[in-house]
Amino acid sequence: MTLFGRDIQPTAAIRGNLQFTHSGLVTATYFINPLGYGLRRSSDKMEVKQAHHALINNLPGGALLLGIQAGLNTIDVLTKMVEGVDLDDCEDYAIEVVGSFERIRDIRPLTRLYLLSIPVGASNSGISALSRMWRGSTSTIDAAALSRADLDEYLEKANETLSRIGGDFDPVPVPAALFQWLWEHYLSRGSVADPVAPTTAGVLDEATAAVFRSAALDEGAQTDSSRRIRPSFVPVVKVVQPDYTYGVSYQSMLTPNSFPYGGMTFPGGSEFLSVLEGLDNATVDWGIRVSTRPAEQVLKSNEQNLRRLGEQMDQRDQEVSFAQNTLMGKAKMLGEYNQHFEVNGGESEVSFTTVIAVGGISRDATLEAVNTLKRRYKRFQIDLTSPIGAQVDLWSMLLPGCPPRRAFDDFAHIVPSDMWAGFVPFTTAEVGDDSGPIIGVNLLSGNFEPIHFGIMEAALHDLSASFAVTGELGSGKSYFLKLMAVLVHDMGGQFLAIDRSQVGEWAHFAASIDNAVVIDLAEPKVSLDPLRLFEPRIAGERTLDSILPLLDLSPTSGPGAAASNLLTAKSIVEHGIRSLRDFYDVVCRLRDTAVHDQDYADLAARLGTVVERVPVLFDATLPPLRLTASATVVRTHKLALPTAEELTSPHLYNRLPLTKRLGTALYELVGVAAREAFLSDNGRFGLLVGDEAHHFTQTQVGAAVTSDFSRDGRKHLAAIGLASHDPGADFQGAAHNLIPNRFVFRQRDETLARNSLEWLGVDLDAAPFLLQILREETSPPTGPGRQVPIQRRGEMFMRDALNRIGRGKVLGPARPDRAEAITSTPVATSDGNALAKQREAVT
Questions:
Q1: Which residues lie below 8 Å from residue 319, measured CB to CB, with a gap of 6+?
Q2: Could you tell me which residues are beta bridge partners of residue 438?
Q3: Sign of CA pseudo-dihedral 437, 442, 445, 449
Q4: What is the rounded CA–CA span in Å between residue 413 and residue 476?
Q5: What CA–CA distances, in Å, run from 631 to 496, 746, 810?
Q6: Strand 467-470, strand 718-724: pairing
Q7: Mind giving me the DSSP string for 155-194?
């Protein structure tokens, strides 16, 4: 049997998000903002369930919930990349955006739109049943004839419903063009003509039935068979659009035949819609039509049903059969069901029909996807069925405003509202920001959506752009840090990176950037003298912060007090102290002339041990460091630095040798210099990048630098990026509490992996399997030489600024020259096919 699409399309007229149907029903349709779910803690997921509980308890009968899968428009994705960036001034980033076009197109990312359509009344348009009969089902309503008062009345009723639901889902009225797009998507579901997801309102503010294309819905795909005698009984609908012959779509409607008898555990066992993502060569939409009954009506109905069961048991009291046991079992179940509503006064009963619509380019592709879904649902103990003869009716259920059909009741299920809320249909595994450069793709959602990280836009949204990274050696930490640094540079910002590697990987990377500055503290060409780096009003304090720990002096000791007195703003001017060398000379002079020469003698002796050894501090002929370059790399590989244990253990710290104290002082000075340069209102974004995070987080000065970047970076267009092997030990204080964006790469050590996931915010008690995924299935080294295949590199877990936790894959720069420059080993040759292999792996 072949039905024509316009016979099924219920819309007569549209005004904004209000739909007027041929049957007289008026609906209001809204975009729904799904709630973050993914890998969040069980307590967070319970809040999501409670939001769905409030939703279902306040929806009117006949409400329709939709989850529509569609392709992302590549141009729209690239548009998000350039938000807030002036491409005329950022030519390098413009090249990156252009290079991303082909990669995004090859990945073919998808998204899921969530919609809610609720009935808000009956039309008073004057189209009676008799006139519809004479004019046919394609009769239209003159949208211009609808009064503003009528529209306001419908909208007011819709707003009342939304008010009861609450603001968790942030409903937004859809534009009139959405109805047209939705119809064309249904007709082309899974075919090459399937339109990409709408991202703009479109040109339609109102419409009539004339905007909807006609199409033939062939249940069973009868036209594909040359046999005319025996009809096809395949549960497939072939949709053909006469004007779009290339857009033939084969679709199959699935619906749950039964749910587990013992119920579905939440969380983890009830979110049955989550398995619809990640199907190859198929598009999957879902729709749920609901109606509810309050607890009072349910209790009254249960009493009547119990009375009928009692009568049946009396009638079969003398009968020898299993019927008596069956009736007793039903009575017990009814008693438990009744008790549930007596105990939970805020409950309601939900009758719902679920349709899962699968579309593909061929019948075989569609049926293969159907069989895949049926296998997936076995783990939920849900039996899916593809009812023959009801395919078109179930297909039409996903149309907003569709009148009730018999199939809707035939495949309906009844559950308490708290159990239905455990389905949590309006959830998302999305992570990242709404805009900004693309750092990778989402692996958890199954749709490969681009992950945007708007590091330079975060301040405009009152969010911190700082981030921290953890992972074992070779897992991708340094690659990611360099990716973020080069993106900041290309978007017009500046960065300072501290390079601890012996091979100088950051220096190698900086060589690909014009006018980059590379500084080696062991062979200095610039000075880090704090008296020359900073303004006079703060230079003295900054010098004390560096010199006193270096000389192992307390601020309250005699020599420490002497240094403090000399480095006040007044004394600096009085003694003409313009550099640390001047400071040393003044101390020596006072040692010889002052009354209390013992304190100055002690101070001079301590300074004398480092004056000639540290030209980067005491050579006044070197020009002071000025952080004005777009890219600055400070090499510290020849500095001796204390371990994390030495920094955190007082007895070990007190015994630190001079070389390690010196290394710590210089390391801190670099961070302080970056703080003074970047945390200023110069209109330019600044990023401080540091590996060996414990040198920033475990010392007093370093912790202050981290805290300042984390707290105030959003006010001054600045951020800090830190990396560590052990977040449990190194990411403490500000690094733990104030840095929102967190990335975890492969960790095969069980203790470090556990620390990493707990730092991320994962509840390992509720999801212990994630520990194995991080250790064994995140960029796993395999094959000869235990190398990570290029298609598996960059896999990671992440938490974004909104505390959403997900799993993704870092792609790296789209520009081949940038991709080559940020490889970790400077001497390694570049694989010219690396990007191509990576793209192929993701797609």
A1: none
A2: 452
A3: positive
A4: 48
A5: 6, 28, 22
A6: parallel
A7: HHHHHHHHHHH-STT--EEPPHHHHHHHHHHHHHTTSTTP
Which among 559, 69, 509 has a CA at the least distance from the CA of 279? 69
Whole-model pTM: value is: 0.86
In whole angstroms, what is the distance from residue 455 CA to residue 485 CA?
A: 10
Question: How much is the average pLDDT of 819-837?
Answer: 56
Structure tokens at 385: 């069925």
What is the distance of C-alpha 526 from the center of its chain?
42
User: How many CA atoms lie within 13 Å of 600's alpha carbon, on the beta-carbon side?
Assistant: 17
pLDDT tens per residue, range 558-600: 999 999 999 999 999 999 999 999 999 999 998 888 665 788 9
* pLDDT for the residue 338: 62
Amino acid 49 reads: K
Alpha-helical regions (H) of 693-788: 694-697, 700-712, 727-730, 734-737, 750-760, 769-776
Rounded Cα–Cα distance for residues 498 and 505 (Å): 11
Q: Residue 440, SS3? A: strand
Tens digit of pLDDT for each residue in 724-783?
A: 988 888 887 766 778 889 999 999 999 999 999 999 999 898 889 999 999 999 999 987
Cβ–Cβ < 8 Å for 759, 731: yes
Per residue in 191-224, pLDDT tens?
988 999 887 655 567 788 888 988 999 988 888 8
Average pLDDT, the chain: 85
Contacts of 245 (CB under 8 A, 6+ apart): none
pLDDT at 522 exceeding the cut of 90: no
Own/partner long-range contacts of 87-92 (Cβ < 8 Å, ≥24 apart): 89/492, 90/490, 90/491, 90/492, 92/489, 92/490
Region 616-627 average pLDDT: 91
Does a cis peptide bond (omega within 30 degrees of 0) precede residue 267? yes
* Cβ atoms of residues 180 and 188 within 8 Å: no
Angle between helices 597-611 and 580-593 (to 10 degrees): 150
Match 């190859």 to its residue by tokens: 280
